[in-house]
Amino acid sequence: MRRRSESEAEGAGGMASTSARAISLAPRGGTPGSRGARGRQHSSNNLKARVQVRVETKIGRACEALIDRTNLHLRHLVSGATASVVARTLLAPLERVKVELQINQRPGGAVKILAGIVKGEGVAGLWRGNTINLLRTVPYRSLNYYTYDNTRALMLQGKDGELSVAQRLVCGATAGCVAILCCFPLDVLRTRMLRKGNEAFYKRGALSTLAHIIRAEGPLALYSGVIPALVSIGPSNAVFYATYDALRSNHLRMASSAGRGGPQREEKMDPKFSLLYGGLAGIVAETSVYPLEVLRRRLQLATVVAATGRGAFGNLRSMSRLLRVILAREGLRGLYAGALPTACQVLPSAAISYYIFEEAKKTLRVNK
After folding, report:
1. Which region ranges are annotated with the description Disordered (predicted)?
2. Is residue 338 part of a domain?
Protein backbone atom coordinates (compact mmCIF):
# COMPACT_ATOMS: atom_id res chain seq x y z
CA MET A 1 0.00 0.00 0.00
CA ARG A 2 2.77 2.37 1.02
CA ARG A 3 4.77 1.64 -2.19
CA ARG A 4 1.65 2.14 -4.29
CA SER A 5 0.98 5.55 -2.70
CA GLU A 6 4.60 6.59 -3.22
CA SER A 7 4.48 5.62 -6.90
CA GLU A 8 1.25 7.54 -7.39
CA ALA A 9 2.79 10.62 -5.75
CA GLU A 10 5.85 10.34 -7.98
CA GLY A 11 3.57 10.07 -11.01
CA ALA A 12 1.64 13.19 -9.99
CA GLY A 13 4.86 15.11 -9.39
CA GLY A 14 6.12 14.15 -12.81
CA MET A 15 2.97 15.33 -14.47
CA ALA A 16 3.17 18.68 -12.63
CA SER A 17 6.78 19.23 -13.66
CA THR A 18 5.94 18.32 -17.25
CA SER A 19 3.08 20.85 -17.27
CA ALA A 20 5.33 23.53 -15.83
CA ARG A 21 7.93 22.90 -18.53
CA ALA A 22 5.25 23.04 -21.17
CA ILE A 23 4.01 26.37 -19.88
CA SER A 24 7.54 27.81 -19.72
CA LEU A 25 8.20 26.69 -23.28
CA ALA A 26 4.98 28.25 -24.62
CA PRO A 27 5.56 31.44 -26.71
CA ARG A 28 5.14 34.60 -24.64
CA GLY A 29 3.49 36.55 -27.42
CA GLY A 30 0.52 34.26 -27.51
CA THR A 31 -0.52 31.94 -30.24
CA PRO A 32 0.43 32.61 -33.86
CA GLY A 33 -3.20 33.50 -34.58
CA SER A 34 -3.36 36.19 -31.89
CA ARG A 35 -0.03 37.67 -32.98
CA GLY A 36 -1.27 37.87 -36.53
CA ALA A 37 -4.48 39.65 -35.45
CA ARG A 38 -2.53 42.22 -33.48
CA GLY A 39 -0.19 42.78 -36.40
CA ARG A 40 -3.08 43.35 -38.78
CA GLN A 41 -4.67 45.80 -36.31
CA HIS A 42 -1.40 47.71 -35.97
CA SER A 43 -1.01 47.93 -39.74
CA SER A 44 -4.60 49.14 -40.06
CA ASN A 45 -3.99 51.87 -37.46
CA ASN A 46 -0.83 52.98 -39.24
CA LEU A 47 -2.69 53.15 -42.55
CA LYS A 48 -5.49 55.23 -41.00
CA ALA A 49 -2.94 57.61 -39.44
CA ARG A 50 -1.13 58.05 -42.77
CA VAL A 51 -4.40 58.69 -44.59
CA GLN A 52 -5.46 61.22 -41.94
CA VAL A 53 -2.14 63.07 -42.23
CA ARG A 54 -2.46 63.21 -46.01
CA VAL A 55 -6.02 64.49 -45.83
CA GLU A 56 -5.11 67.14 -43.25
CA THR A 57 -2.14 68.20 -45.36
CA LYS A 58 -4.30 68.56 -48.46
CA ILE A 59 -6.94 70.53 -46.54
CA GLY A 60 -4.25 72.77 -45.07
CA ARG A 61 -2.76 73.47 -48.47
CA ALA A 62 -6.21 74.16 -49.93
CA CYS A 63 -6.95 76.62 -47.11
CA GLU A 64 -3.60 78.33 -47.61
CA ALA A 65 -4.23 78.64 -51.32
CA LEU A 66 -7.71 80.07 -50.68
CA ILE A 67 -6.28 82.60 -48.22
CA ASP A 68 -3.59 83.66 -50.68
CA ARG A 69 -6.19 84.15 -53.42
CA THR A 70 -8.41 86.28 -51.18
CA ASN A 71 -7.94 90.05 -51.29
CA LEU A 72 -5.59 91.32 -48.58
CA HIS A 73 -7.91 94.14 -47.53
CA LEU A 74 -10.82 91.72 -47.17
CA ARG A 75 -8.70 89.44 -45.00
CA HIS A 76 -7.79 92.41 -42.85
CA LEU A 77 -11.46 93.35 -42.38
CA VAL A 78 -12.44 89.75 -41.64
CA SER A 79 -9.82 89.61 -38.89
CA GLY A 80 -11.42 92.57 -37.14
CA ALA A 81 -14.93 91.18 -37.63
CA THR A 82 -13.96 87.84 -36.10
CA ALA A 83 -12.50 89.52 -33.04
CA SER A 84 -15.61 91.67 -32.61
CA VAL A 85 -18.09 88.77 -32.85
CA VAL A 86 -16.29 86.58 -30.32
CA ALA A 87 -15.59 89.29 -27.74
CA ARG A 88 -19.02 90.95 -27.95
CA THR A 89 -20.97 87.69 -27.70
CA LEU A 90 -18.98 86.45 -24.72
CA LEU A 91 -19.52 89.71 -22.84
CA ALA A 92 -23.09 90.50 -23.92
CA PRO A 93 -24.51 90.26 -20.35
CA LEU A 94 -22.26 93.09 -19.17
CA GLU A 95 -23.28 95.20 -22.17
CA ARG A 96 -26.95 94.66 -21.29
CA VAL A 97 -26.39 95.84 -17.72
CA LYS A 98 -24.48 98.88 -18.99
CA VAL A 99 -27.35 99.82 -21.30
CA GLU A 100 -29.84 99.61 -18.43
CA LEU A 101 -27.70 101.89 -16.27
CA GLN A 102 -26.49 104.31 -18.91
CA ILE A 103 -29.48 104.71 -21.22
CA ASN A 104 -32.56 103.63 -19.28
CA GLN A 105 -31.28 104.97 -15.94
CA ARG A 106 -32.60 101.87 -14.20
CA PRO A 107 -32.33 102.18 -10.39
CA GLY A 108 -30.11 99.89 -8.36
CA GLY A 109 -26.57 98.64 -8.73
CA ALA A 110 -25.15 96.41 -11.42
CA VAL A 111 -25.65 93.19 -9.44
CA LYS A 112 -29.27 94.05 -8.63
CA ILE A 113 -30.03 94.87 -12.25
CA LEU A 114 -28.38 91.66 -13.42
CA ALA A 115 -30.52 89.63 -11.01
CA GLY A 116 -33.65 91.54 -12.10
CA ILE A 117 -33.03 90.77 -15.78
CA VAL A 118 -32.56 87.07 -15.06
CA LYS A 119 -35.70 86.98 -12.93
CA GLY A 120 -37.88 88.87 -15.38
CA GLU A 121 -36.58 87.60 -18.73
CA GLY A 122 -34.59 84.50 -17.92
CA VAL A 123 -30.91 83.94 -18.62
CA ALA A 124 -31.51 84.52 -22.33
CA GLY A 125 -32.51 88.09 -21.46
CA LEU A 126 -28.86 88.86 -20.76
CA TRP A 127 -28.20 88.39 -24.48
CA ARG A 128 -31.13 90.52 -25.56
CA GLY A 129 -29.95 92.98 -28.17
CA ASN A 130 -26.73 91.10 -28.90
CA THR A 131 -27.64 90.76 -32.56
CA ILE A 132 -28.17 94.51 -32.74
CA ASN A 133 -24.87 95.04 -30.96
CA LEU A 134 -23.10 92.83 -33.50
CA LEU A 135 -24.79 94.72 -36.34
CA ARG A 136 -23.05 97.83 -35.04
CA THR A 137 -19.78 96.56 -33.59
CA VAL A 138 -18.70 94.17 -36.36
CA PRO A 139 -18.38 96.81 -39.11
CA TYR A 140 -17.22 99.43 -36.59
CA ARG A 141 -14.38 97.32 -35.18
CA SER A 142 -13.38 96.02 -38.60
CA LEU A 143 -13.03 99.54 -40.01
CA ASN A 144 -11.40 100.75 -36.82
CA TYR A 145 -8.63 98.15 -36.80
CA TYR A 146 -8.21 98.33 -40.57
CA THR A 147 -7.91 102.13 -40.62
CA TYR A 148 -5.47 102.23 -37.71
CA ASP A 149 -3.14 99.59 -39.16
CA ASN A 150 -3.07 101.24 -42.58
CA THR A 151 -2.66 104.76 -41.18
CA ARG A 152 0.18 103.52 -38.97
CA ALA A 153 1.84 101.73 -41.90
CA LEU A 154 1.55 104.89 -44.00
CA MET A 155 3.22 106.99 -41.31
CA LEU A 156 6.01 104.43 -40.90
CA GLN A 157 6.92 104.52 -44.61
CA GLY A 158 10.44 105.79 -45.07
CA LYS A 159 10.91 106.08 -41.32
CA ASP A 160 13.54 104.15 -39.39
CA GLY A 161 12.15 103.64 -35.90
CA GLU A 162 8.86 103.91 -34.06
CA LEU A 163 6.02 106.40 -34.17
CA SER A 164 6.02 109.26 -31.72
CA VAL A 165 3.26 109.60 -29.12
CA ALA A 166 1.63 112.37 -31.18
CA GLN A 167 1.64 110.20 -34.31
CA ARG A 168 0.09 107.28 -32.42
CA LEU A 169 -2.64 109.56 -31.12
CA VAL A 170 -3.32 110.86 -34.64
CA CYS A 171 -3.54 107.31 -36.04
CA GLY A 172 -5.93 106.23 -33.29
CA ALA A 173 -8.16 109.31 -33.59
CA THR A 174 -8.29 108.95 -37.38
CA ALA A 175 -9.35 105.30 -37.08
CA GLY A 176 -12.09 106.17 -34.59
CA CYS A 177 -13.50 109.05 -36.63
CA VAL A 178 -13.58 107.06 -39.89
CA ALA A 179 -15.35 104.14 -38.21
CA ILE A 180 -17.86 106.46 -36.51
CA LEU A 181 -18.79 108.31 -39.69
CA CYS A 182 -19.33 105.05 -41.55
CA CYS A 183 -21.22 103.17 -38.84
CA PHE A 184 -22.99 105.84 -36.77
CA PRO A 185 -26.50 105.13 -38.16
CA LEU A 186 -26.18 101.58 -36.81
CA ASP A 187 -25.29 102.99 -33.39
CA VAL A 188 -28.38 105.23 -33.42
CA LEU A 189 -30.51 102.27 -34.47
CA ARG A 190 -29.16 100.12 -31.63
CA THR A 191 -29.69 102.82 -29.02
CA ARG A 192 -33.29 103.40 -30.08
CA MET A 193 -34.15 99.70 -30.10
CA LEU A 194 -32.65 99.01 -26.68
CA ARG A 195 -34.18 102.03 -25.01
CA LYS A 196 -36.87 101.30 -22.42
CA GLY A 197 -40.33 101.83 -23.92
CA ASN A 198 -39.22 100.92 -27.45
CA GLU A 199 -39.86 97.19 -27.07
CA ALA A 200 -42.20 97.34 -30.09
CA PHE A 201 -39.29 98.47 -32.28
CA TYR A 202 -37.15 95.64 -30.95
CA LYS A 203 -39.80 93.07 -31.83
CA ARG A 204 -40.26 94.44 -35.35
CA GLY A 205 -36.60 94.16 -36.17
CA ALA A 206 -33.78 96.43 -37.31
CA LEU A 207 -35.04 97.17 -40.83
CA SER A 208 -38.51 98.14 -39.62
CA THR A 209 -37.04 100.43 -36.96
CA LEU A 210 -34.70 101.99 -39.49
CA ALA A 211 -37.57 102.70 -41.87
CA HIS A 212 -39.64 104.22 -39.04
CA ILE A 213 -36.83 106.61 -38.04
CA ILE A 214 -36.35 107.78 -41.63
CA ARG A 215 -40.10 108.27 -42.20
CA ALA A 216 -40.80 110.02 -38.88
CA GLU A 217 -37.62 112.10 -38.44
CA GLY A 218 -35.85 112.13 -41.79
CA PRO A 219 -32.53 110.58 -42.87
CA LEU A 220 -30.49 113.09 -40.87
CA ALA A 221 -31.89 111.57 -37.67
CA LEU A 222 -29.55 108.63 -38.27
CA TYR A 223 -26.69 111.01 -37.45
CA SER A 224 -28.27 112.46 -34.32
CA GLY A 225 -25.42 113.31 -31.97
CA VAL A 226 -22.63 112.53 -34.42
CA ILE A 227 -20.54 115.56 -33.44
CA PRO A 228 -20.52 114.68 -29.72
CA ALA A 229 -19.75 111.11 -30.80
CA LEU A 230 -16.67 112.28 -32.69
CA VAL A 231 -15.64 114.34 -29.66
CA SER A 232 -16.04 111.23 -27.50
CA ILE A 233 -14.76 108.40 -29.69
CA GLY A 234 -11.84 110.27 -31.25
CA PRO A 235 -9.95 110.82 -27.97
CA SER A 236 -10.92 107.38 -26.62
CA ASN A 237 -9.62 105.64 -29.71
CA ALA A 238 -6.46 107.74 -29.71
CA VAL A 239 -5.72 106.89 -26.07
CA PHE A 240 -6.39 103.17 -26.63
CA TYR A 241 -4.09 102.71 -29.61
CA ALA A 242 -1.39 104.98 -28.24
CA THR A 243 -1.38 103.07 -24.93
CA TYR A 244 -1.36 99.63 -26.56
CA ASP A 245 1.31 100.55 -29.10
CA ALA A 246 3.51 102.08 -26.41
CA LEU A 247 3.20 99.00 -24.18
CA ARG A 248 3.88 96.65 -27.08
CA SER A 249 6.87 98.62 -28.36
CA ASN A 250 8.36 98.88 -24.89
CA HIS A 251 7.90 95.14 -24.34
CA LEU A 252 9.62 94.23 -27.62
CA ARG A 253 12.41 96.71 -26.98
CA MET A 254 13.09 95.18 -23.55
CA ALA A 255 12.98 91.66 -25.00
CA SER A 256 15.46 92.68 -27.70
CA SER A 257 17.85 94.34 -25.26
CA ALA A 258 17.76 91.22 -23.08
CA GLY A 259 19.34 89.32 -25.97
CA ARG A 260 16.46 86.95 -26.68
CA GLY A 261 17.24 86.23 -30.28
CA GLY A 262 17.98 89.75 -31.47
CA PRO A 263 15.42 92.21 -32.85
CA GLN A 264 11.86 91.13 -32.32
CA ARG A 265 8.86 91.61 -34.55
CA GLU A 266 5.28 92.27 -33.47
CA GLU A 267 4.05 88.76 -34.27
CA LYS A 268 6.70 87.23 -32.00
CA MET A 269 5.22 88.71 -28.83
CA ASP A 270 3.75 86.13 -26.46
CA PRO A 271 -0.07 86.03 -26.80
CA LYS A 272 -0.59 86.54 -23.08
CA PHE A 273 1.00 89.98 -23.39
CA SER A 274 -1.44 90.88 -26.18
CA LEU A 275 -4.26 90.04 -23.78
CA LEU A 276 -2.69 92.02 -20.94
CA TYR A 277 -1.80 95.13 -22.94
CA GLY A 278 -5.14 95.17 -24.77
CA GLY A 279 -7.03 95.07 -21.47
CA LEU A 280 -4.90 97.81 -19.89
CA ALA A 281 -5.26 100.05 -22.95
CA GLY A 282 -9.03 99.54 -22.94
CA ILE A 283 -9.38 100.53 -19.29
CA VAL A 284 -7.21 103.64 -19.71
CA ALA A 285 -9.13 104.75 -22.80
CA GLU A 286 -12.62 104.12 -21.38
CA THR A 287 -12.11 105.75 -17.99
CA SER A 288 -10.40 108.82 -19.44
CA VAL A 289 -13.40 109.87 -21.56
CA TYR A 290 -16.33 108.07 -19.89
CA PRO A 291 -18.45 111.21 -19.21
CA LEU A 292 -18.28 112.04 -22.93
CA GLU A 293 -19.60 108.55 -23.69
CA VAL A 294 -22.57 109.12 -21.37
CA LEU A 295 -23.36 112.42 -23.06
CA ARG A 296 -23.14 110.81 -26.47
CA ARG A 297 -25.61 108.07 -25.54
CA ARG A 298 -28.10 110.49 -24.02
CA LEU A 299 -27.96 112.77 -27.06
CA GLN A 300 -29.13 109.94 -29.28
CA LEU A 301 -32.43 109.56 -27.43
CA ALA A 302 -35.56 111.27 -28.67
CA THR A 303 -36.37 112.67 -25.23
CA VAL A 304 -33.18 114.69 -25.22
CA VAL A 305 -34.12 116.50 -28.42
CA ALA A 306 -36.78 118.51 -26.60
CA ALA A 307 -34.71 118.88 -23.45
CA THR A 308 -31.67 120.35 -25.17
CA GLY A 309 -33.10 121.82 -28.36
CA ARG A 310 -30.25 120.43 -30.45
CA GLY A 311 -30.21 120.09 -34.21
CA ALA A 312 -30.19 116.95 -36.26
CA PHE A 313 -26.45 116.39 -35.93
CA GLY A 314 -26.09 117.63 -32.38
CA ASN A 315 -23.45 120.20 -31.48
CA LEU A 316 -21.16 121.23 -28.69
CA ARG A 317 -23.74 123.70 -27.36
CA SER A 318 -26.34 120.95 -26.97
CA MET A 319 -23.67 118.84 -25.31
CA SER A 320 -22.99 121.55 -22.73
CA ARG A 321 -26.73 121.98 -22.11
CA LEU A 322 -27.16 118.27 -21.54
CA LEU A 323 -24.18 118.31 -19.20
CA ARG A 324 -25.86 120.97 -17.06
CA VAL A 325 -29.13 119.00 -17.07
CA ILE A 326 -27.41 115.80 -15.90
CA LEU A 327 -25.45 117.59 -13.17
CA ALA A 328 -28.61 119.36 -11.93
CA ARG A 329 -30.77 116.23 -11.86
CA GLU A 330 -28.33 113.44 -11.08
CA GLY A 331 -25.17 115.12 -9.88
CA LEU A 332 -21.64 114.09 -10.81
CA ARG A 333 -22.66 110.48 -10.34
CA GLY A 334 -24.86 110.72 -13.42
CA LEU A 335 -21.80 111.22 -15.63
CA TYR A 336 -20.46 107.87 -14.47
CA ALA A 337 -23.68 105.84 -14.67
CA GLY A 338 -22.74 102.31 -15.66
CA ALA A 339 -19.02 102.89 -15.13
CA LEU A 340 -18.52 99.71 -13.08
CA PRO A 341 -20.08 97.24 -15.53
CA THR A 342 -18.41 99.15 -18.36
CA ALA A 343 -14.99 98.68 -16.73
CA CYS A 344 -15.77 95.00 -16.11
CA GLN A 345 -16.74 94.69 -19.76
CA VAL A 346 -13.99 96.79 -21.35
CA LEU A 347 -11.09 95.02 -19.64
CA PRO A 348 -11.86 91.52 -21.00
CA SER A 349 -13.45 92.88 -24.19
CA ALA A 350 -10.42 94.90 -25.24
CA ALA A 351 -8.09 92.09 -24.20
CA ILE A 352 -9.99 89.32 -26.00
CA SER A 353 -10.83 91.30 -29.13
CA TYR A 354 -7.31 92.60 -29.73
CA TYR A 355 -5.79 89.21 -28.99
CA ILE A 356 -8.13 87.47 -31.45
CA PHE A 357 -7.53 90.22 -33.99
CA GLU A 358 -3.76 89.71 -33.82
CA GLU A 359 -4.10 85.92 -34.04
CA ALA A 360 -6.58 86.17 -36.93
CA LYS A 361 -4.14 88.40 -38.81
CA LYS A 362 -1.44 85.77 -38.42
CA THR A 363 -3.77 83.00 -39.62
CA LEU A 364 -4.98 85.04 -42.60
CA ARG A 365 -1.45 86.29 -43.37
CA VAL A 366 -2.12 89.98 -42.86
CA ASN A 367 1.29 91.52 -42.21
CA LYS A 368 0.44 94.99 -40.95
Report:
1. 1-49
2. yes
